[in-house]
Design goal:
Strand order of the largest sheet of chain B: 1-2-3-4-9-10-11-13
Order of helices and strands of chain B: EHEHEHEHHEEEEEHEHEHEHEHHH
Shape of chain B: globular
Largest sheet of chain A: 8 strands, parallel, barrel
Number of helices of chain B: 12
Number of helices of chain A: 16
Distance between the termini of chain A: 36 Å
Radius of gyration of chain B: 21 Å
Oligomer: heterodimer
Largest interface: A-B, 74 and 78 residues
Bound molecules: flavin mononucleotide
Distance between the termini of chain B: 38 Å
Chain lengths: 458, 417
């Protein structure tokens, strides 16, 4: 008997504040008006995607002490826009990135529980741990955390939020008019949490929501980040979208599950993926080259190099050779508020490798950034892209993808119309939603079902 | 009168010919503790989107200016400062900002004003949440700022301790100091929120393909707020919202909160019990406004009333008695409880308007009964008397309230720099 075909999970990342969004395209619309979000979410839902994904950044990026002005700047509040999207969609999951350093568990648990009620069980939380003092300047309490404490707080934050969300069982509201009993038990929502980061007690004031808890995503890549995901997350938003890197990450993270008593199906690996479609593979390749040049202007290439060099490189010609001076070691002062800065963990080595690469290929600064930067994950005709995505998933390089189109808000339209039907023909992607909650779409158990099973087993 | 043209008068007119502004305050099944037991109540649906959609749509059918949505960072309680452990009243609620956002795309004209608690939350988060509510409602957002002096709610955050006290201790020096501190913090909070709304100039997004610049960063501003309770750098991550400044409102019963209204708000809700009290309160707020140097800025003063409306005044009073019977005690409120006919309420509102109130926020005792009585009974009655609109005359909440779209406080500095 052959193995049943793995089902692909697909999600849509709203193109906003990142290096891949092309705002100069004539088709690029507003990235802040609600109409853009509604269009994007409806397209993803029409295509039967699992969920829509929003990233977050809590301080505007800076370069050389000034606000970075070359990429899209500005985004809406995550919870608010997701709640509004719940009104214009019916099934698609709504995933919000919410930081665990610059928030408090009682408030975040209430917001997710509220979103879950208001969306009929479609909420998910991407727990991120960006911790820095730069971002902390926008917040009034405990400005920021030492880096080594970020996951300790994230873990305790998530556990505490879980305690709050579980403090209502779901059957407390009886609303019996005749006897005047609204609540079965006056203590509904009671909690006590005493820990290193939080010492709180009282009563949670949102009764249990359809999913009980939001689906949990994790997006960090460090050793601690991977352990955090293996222990506590339902899905990982990863950055490895090539086949070999994807397989290695997949094996690594799924291999960590047994020690937490979890099985491979309980943690989905969903890399971020970009795509460029054309009528033919050749046309798509040509388009992808154009998109890369739109994404990386000369000015952008210089700024990108500064992420690594940690120096002002504005005097360099983007069409000329790489700087022969070395990166400035130590605290990064040139570019702030950027995840990419942390990506290059060893700037000296990165710089040396880049110089060698550029010399060998006779690449200018801009060529180098185009060639080494965010390569498009999937480039080709719809048939090619469908086959590649299916191969990645069947080959355990991923459980699916979080697609990041480069144009707002219509960047998903062609994918929905051309690639999705081919995946459906292959029997690898749903023709319609089976369930109503995000847990249903992702094949994850409902936490209350877990609790019931535990009760039955004990 | 069309669109959002500013009124030439600094103060919202309270003359007998000025249009009356009308809002409803939404809370669970209604403001009477026994409201949920009425046949028109939907007590098992209070946490559903459908319920809120139906209720706000009904308010919009009545052409009301806006709805407010109550909230708190702990369970509802009949006790002034502590949880009450009761099981015979509605307990449990959803985040008010998210309710407002959830109904925004399903309504077109009505303003959406959620309650936000300043005491334990971050002004940075809240500023972008309300800015986003303004985007998703295309210019209909506001907020009602509230402080929390509850010990149990402080324990939900574990960051500061609030001493126990009862309502009878409100006038003791210790409690006065506590309350004054909380309101000063709320004023700072609103200041931060407002600066963040202005931290982007309206035309900051330039999409200049020639130079590759998406924004003109000279039109983004650090707010550099330094206060006693917090400091915030800015700018916001969310561009300036459609209204520029969404509408800020607060409920106020005494001098300390009057000062918050005078310093920070576009609308103050007050709770007079008769026309003379209304006059005295309006005078007090106008004086505080002058003291705050805002005498030239428009500031609405709305009267709050709990209402039970029936075509027959006796029926309304009997209904209140029956509800009180179910609750076990007579309902008392900070606001006047009005039980009577829509015509009787219209008389009262027009009389109090002569005391200087510019609008009213009605708290339906039973939403399922008294909200439709407002939209289908009171509103036509006021309209017959020429005191209420026939159609929505503006697309934004500020427009409905006769408030101009404010200039950006930072725009001038960058123009002269
Ligand atoms: C694919 C991906 C997406 C991320 N998205 C966000 C985001 O939207 N907001 C944010 O603050 N951090 C984001 N992060 C950063 C991580 O959450 C995390 O804070 C950071 O990677 C540092 O943790 P680490 O050392 O475990 O990698 C993202 C990381 C990855 C890999």
């Amino acid at each position: 008997m052959s193995k049943p075909r793995k089902q692909i999970h697909l999600a849509a990342h709203f193109p906003g504040v990142n290096n891949t969004t092309v705002w100069s395209d004539p088709q690029a619309g507003s990235h802040i008006e609600f109409g853009s979000f509604a269009h994007f979410a409806r397209t993803a839902e029409r295509a039967k995607f699992d969920f829509l994904f929003l990233a977050e950044g809590l301080r505007l990026r800076e370069q050389g002490g000034r606000i970075y002005d070359l990429d899209v700047v500005g985004r809406p509040d995550t919870f608010t826009v997701l709640a509004a999207l719940a009104a214009v969609t019916e099934r698609i999951g709504l995933t919000g990135t919410i930081n665990s350093t610059f928030n408090e568990p009682y408030e975040v648990a209430r917001q997710f529980a509220s979103l879950d009620h208001l969306s009929g069980g479609r909420s998910a939380w991407n727990v991120v741990t960006s911790w820095d003092a730069f971002t902390g300047e926008n917040f009034r309490r405990d400005g920021f955390l030492p880096q080594e404490e970020r996951y300790s707080r994230a873990r305790e934050f998530l556990a505490t939020a879980g305690e709050l969300l579980d403090s209502w069982q779901g059957d407390e509201i009886v609303a019996d008019r005749a006897t005047g009993t609204f609540l079965r038990d006056a203590r509904a929502g009671s909690f006590v949490h005493k820990g290193h980061h939080f010492d709180i007690h009282g009563q949670f004031n949102v009764p249990r929501s359809p999913q009980g808890r939001p689906v949990i995503f994790q997006a960090g890549d460090s050793e601690e980040g991977r352990e955090f995901a293996a222990a506590d997350a339902d899905a990982i938003f990863s950055r490895y979208s090539t086949f070999e890197e994807g397989r290695a990450f997949y094996r690594d993270v799924k291999g960590r599950l047994p020690k937490y008593g979890r099985s491979p199906g309980q943690l989905l690996i969903l890399p971020a993926a970009t795509f460029v479609l054309g009528d033919t593979d050749a046309e798509a390749a040509e388009l992808a080259r154009e998109v890369r040049r739109q994404q990386v202007s000369g000015a952008t290439a210089i700024k990108h190099l500064e992420f690594v060099w940690n120096r002002d490189l504005s005097a360099y010609d983007p069409d000329g050779p790489l700087p022969d001076i070395d990166p400035d070691p130590g605290e990064h002062t040139v570019a702030r508020g950027r995840a990419q800065v942390r990506m290059y963990r060893d700037p000296l080595t990165t710089a040396r490798e880049w110089r060698e690469l550029a010399a060998a290929h006779k690449w200018s600064i801009r060529d180098l950034v185009i060639e080494t930067g965010n390569r498009q994950s999937f480039v080709g005709s719809p048939a090619t892209v469908a086959a590649t995505i299916d191969d990645f998933v069947q080959g355990d390089a991923a459980d699916g993808f979080i697609l990041v189109p480069h144009v707002t808000p219509g960047g998903l339209d062609a994918f929905a119309d051309t690639v999705v039907p081919l995946l459906q023909e292959r029997g690898a992607f749903r023709a319609d939603y089976d369930g109503t909650t995000l847990r249903d779409h992702l094949g994850l158990a409902h936490p209350d079902a877990d609790a019931a099973a535990e009760r039955a087993a004990s | 009168m069309s669109s959002d043209i500013p009124s030439p008068y600094p103060l919202p007119a309270s003359s007998p010919n000025a249009p009356l502004h009308l809002a409803v305050a939404l809370d669970g099944a209604g403001w009477h503790p026994a409201a949920w037991r009425e046949p028109t109540a939907r007590p098992r649906e209070l946490l559903t989107a459908r319920y809120w959609q139906d209720v706000v749509t009904e308010a919009e059918r009545g052409l009301l200016d806006f709805v407010t949505i109550e909230d708190s960072l702990g369970p509802q309680s009949s006790h002034f400062t502590e949880p009450d452990g009761r099981t015979d009243q509605v307990r449990g609620r959803l985040d008010a900002v998210l309710i407002a956002a959830r109904v925004a795309p399903l309504t077109r004209h009505i303003g959406l004003v959620p309650t936000v608690v300043a005491t334990h939350t971050e002004p940075f988060h809240l500023s972008k949440a309300i800015a986003t509510l303004d985007y998703v409602s295309t210019g209909r957002a506001g907020l009602r700022v509230q402080v929390s002096a509850r010990r149990n709610e402080a324990a939900h955050f574990g960051r500061r301790a609030i001493p126990p006290f009862g309502i009878e201790e409100l006038d003791t020096p210790a409690v006065r100091e506590l309350v004054t501190g909380l309101f000063d913090e709320a004023a700072d909070y609103v200041e931060v929120v407002r600066r963040l709304w202005d931290s982007w100039e309206d035309d900051a997004e330039i999409r200049d393909v020639a130079t590759g610049r998406f924004i003109d960063r000279d039109k983004l501003h650090y707010i550099d707020f330094e206060g006693r309770h917090f400091s915030v750098k800015g700018p916001s991550i969310t561009p300036r919202p459609p209204q520029g400044q969404p509408v800020v409102s607060a409920l106020a019963h005494s001098d300390v909160p009057f000062r918050l209204v005078a310093r920070s708000a576009d609308i103050g809700y007050v709770t007079p019990h008769d026309g003379d009290q209304a006059r005295a309160i309006v005078t007090g707020i106008r004086a505080a406004q002058e003291a705050a140097g805002r005498e030239r800025e428009p500031l609405h003063v709305f009267g709050d009333l709990v209402v039970l409306l029936d075509d027959d005044a006796g029926a309304a009073r009997a209904r209140l008695e029956r509800l009180d019977g179910l609750a076990g005690t007579p309902y008392i409120s900070d606001a006047k409880v009005f039980a009577g006919t829509p015509a009787g309420l219209a008389d009262l509102l027009l009389e109090w308007r002569r005391a200087g109130l510019t609008g009213f926020r009605l708290r339906p005792a039973v939403i399922g009964h008294d909200l439709p009585a407002i939209t289908r009974g009171l509103v036509p009655e006021l309209r017959r008397r020429g005191a209420f609109r026939d159609a929505y005359e503006a697309r934004t909440l500020r427009g409905l309230l006769g408030l101009a779209r404010p200039a950006n406080r930072y725009a001038a500095t960058s123009a002269t720099a």
